[in-house]
Amino acid sequence: MGFLNDLNPQQLEGVIYTQGPLLILAGAGSGKTRVITYRIAYLIGQQGVPPEQILAVTFTNKAAEEMKNRVLELLGDRARKVWISTFHSASVRILRREIQSLGYGQDFAILDTADQIRLVKECARELKINEELYDPKEMARRISELKNRLISPQAYAREAQAFGMEDKLAKVYSYYQSLLKRYNSLDFDDLLMMTVHLFETHPEVLHSYQRRFQHMMIDEYQDTNHAQYRLVRLLGEHGNVCVVGDDDQSIYGFRGADLGNILRFEKDYPQARVIRLEQNYRSTQNILDAAGAVVGKNQKRKAKRLWTQKPKGAHIQVCQVADEEAEAHYIGKTIKQIRVNGKWSYADFAVLYRAHAQSRALEEGLRDEGVPYRIVGGLRFYERKEIKDLLAYLKAIVYPEDDLSFKRILNVPPRGIGSGTVEKLEGYAKARGFSLFQAFTESVSAGLDQMGLTYAQRRGLTNLAGLLEEFKRLAANTSVAELLEIILKKTGYEQILQQEVAERASGEEGRSRLENIRELFSAVRIFEERFNCQDGIMKDETYYKHSVLAAFLDHVTLVTDSDQETQGATSGKGAVLMMTLHGAKGLEFPVVFMAGMEEGLFPHQSALTDTGQMEEERRLCYVGMTRTREMLYMVHVEKRRLYGSVQWNSPSRFIEEIPIELVKEVVWSDRSVRSVDGQSVSKIALSPIDHLPQLQEAGPFKKGIQVKHPVWGIGRVQEAEGQGEDQRVVVHFKTVGPKKLAVKYARLEKVG
DNA sequence: CTGCATCAGATTTTT
DNA sequence: TCTGATGCAG
Ligand SMILES: Nc1ncnc2c1ncn2[C@@H]1O[C@H](COP(=O)(O)OP(=O)(O)OP(=O)(O)O)[C@@H](O)[C@H]1O
Prior knowledge:
By secondary structure, this protein is of the alpha/beta class. Adenosine-5'-triphosphate binds next to helix 2.
């Protein structure tokens, strides 16, 4: 057990304290995740606990993947039997075995967020609710919120007002839930809610899982919501529960995360042991001080100590650029520059931002600069139209009652089945209590004559029925990739896209669709390969035994960041990672760029008026900063395009909250920005040497700071212009009032 | 029923 | 600015 030497005494205690509840409450980079990882290894390797008795829950798939890999490194293959997954994935695995007790079929479909909204819309329409007054999106959001608070439609109907939004919501929620049931489908939030429901109503099932999971560990416990909390309490009744978290890193308030869960832990488990980790192993002193100063501005927080043995390190580079294009080029050029000068490869850099919308400009800039990058998350791959279409075919094959998917493919690609035909089918279904799909099959085999359909409509329906039957037959003994290939050909989907590319001026779109489809193929192949060569535990599940396809569908709905697999395989050389600040949680990078550090963007507009939300934004900033091992760059843009109009932003308050002495400020401009006609000429006009960033140091005296003058004493900077030693400032002195000074001559000093 | 034109709304963050 | 939803003509 040599690996235990990699731990400090507090961490070691967390690892070997394996009986009874344990709370590890500690700041960023203090090795919380490492404790969980080593704890798993210790339980198995040292205490002889069977791997399948361990359940470790993380927050994102990426975090789960990483933890799995680390445990594999420590233990080798026997670690594969440990359940390391997100709450949602774990719930699916449980429900795939047990959901029959709740009256659902084992082969339930899982709706993603878009489907959720689609279904809510359908409900609203059916219930004749005015969609202008009651926005389906808003209702979907609130239903999700209710589910995360474990409030059933019945319970909500009892507490809701009998008019207005609450009344409509109660009706929609109830109808929505009944439709889900009819479609044998669960939405994302149901995965948690139904599992809780299952355990609460079926003690024998609960007991079997309690016995099975003798040891539970939950990472990022500060971000659990109520449903997740209930799951932990139910499964962890035996008390062998180890939770780790940091109240300063709570950033999922918007989806119901409740800090109270972690703060209440000692009350929930009175005999709980609490361990605090105070040594940070990740960041330099400067970064730690800066991040600490920022999060220290929050009123609502538990103070905690965090220290490091690392050197002070570089200053935090704060850089101002003109617009988002310049921002991207600055980042690209700086990466190239310090990669050459230093010891880093592209994979050591991360570009973090508040919202996905920022990624496009950054992406283009990096591409221009020839910097390899990889975007994590974003307009998610599996949410693209063409991908969803194809997946809907697969779903219609695997989930016979999933009308939502069936509806999607009914007329895709166009085959003459329009809204008229769909309505007729729906009427037919309703009259007989059938699902749409049943109605479809029935009416086709009955010859379609009862419904007054035209010849073309009948032909469309009959063709589709024939295709689906064929696909189903093939699905049983063909690989998913082959099946997809056949679907693509036989439905004419591929042909339509190819035609588009060949004929239209707008063939670009079709081309990119075809590319995405090709990417889907490679994702499918990689998945199948892994599945077949016995990697992981998915294969052990009886539900998946008969079907790689079923396993694949669960995989794509749960593991939404697809590029991990496809792109990871192609660009092994390493690439700069781009992702949102939320996505970066739990990860670390030697060099981090935080882009878009501007008021209104970060902190986000909607947080400006709400202290609670503002504190969450600040925590998010803290999370971002503490991802950094050595060099942290914060970039803010003066002028940002938004919906076509321009917005002038001032630097984020979070920048101002960093003690000035930890910061080095820079104003950057790309000398080649524009030629007369407004065309960007940077690539042609510049010789290689010019590609290095043109750094000019901003004067050290910023607006608002206190300064001391040898003669006039203490004053405050009111205006500042120019750069470096050419800076000129207007200082308002206590003794003599305002004075304009040149920094080069006046011997000013910063105070405080 | 399909294809094109016009217009509104979008970007907070995730499973 | 760009995308998608809706409405109208063919
Ligand atoms: N005892 C130790 N000795 C050396 N390095 C350590 C030690 N413990 C942790 N580290 C390193 O410190 C870094 C942070 O660890 P880890 O990710 O476990 O922290 P964390 O508390 O989960 O962080 P965060 O909450 O910020 O995500 C990792 O690079 C890890 O390898």
